[in-house]
Amino acid sequence: MKKIVWTAAPEDQDYSGALSYLSLLCDPTIAAKLVKKFESAVMINVKAKDVIRAAGLSLLGKDNFHVNRDLKKIESGTPLSPILLVRGNGSKAIPLVIADGYHRTCAIYVHDEDSDIKARVIDWS
Fold first, then answer.
1. Is the per-residue pLDDT at 91 higher than 90?
2. Do residues 51 and 45 make contact, with C-beta atoms less than 8 angstroms apart?
3. Residue 7 lies in a domain
4. Among 1-5, 23-27, 30-34, which is the least confidently predicted range?
5. Is the dihedral of CA 81, 87, 93, 99 positive or negative?
6. Is 88 buried (19+), middle (13-18) or exposed (0-12) by CB count in 10 A?
7. Residue 58 pLDDT greater than 90, yes or no
8. Would residue 101 count as lying in a domain?
């Protein structure tokens, strides 16, 4: 099984992608504050299978263009950018939010669901 290589930090486009997505879930001003929090969030490792489950999302397969592209990056040893997560709240039935990195998460799951994913995680508050 090919080892997944990671960049040291998310790319600029990941932050803009997170802002675009989070602006659909909350006020754009709040979304901007959340995205700013990602810059100082600590990098952690999470399992691909746990991210998909906690987010309550369907898994995209290798036939998806973006998932396939990320699978090719894994196979070639091209570093992937860490994903950006907003922690859910189990007591309020609020799922984890993948602010950026859904396709990468799916590609890693398809590659090996037990693989660790580098992620920055923040809270809503």
1. no
2. no
3. no
4. 1-5
5. negative
6. middle
7. yes
8. yes
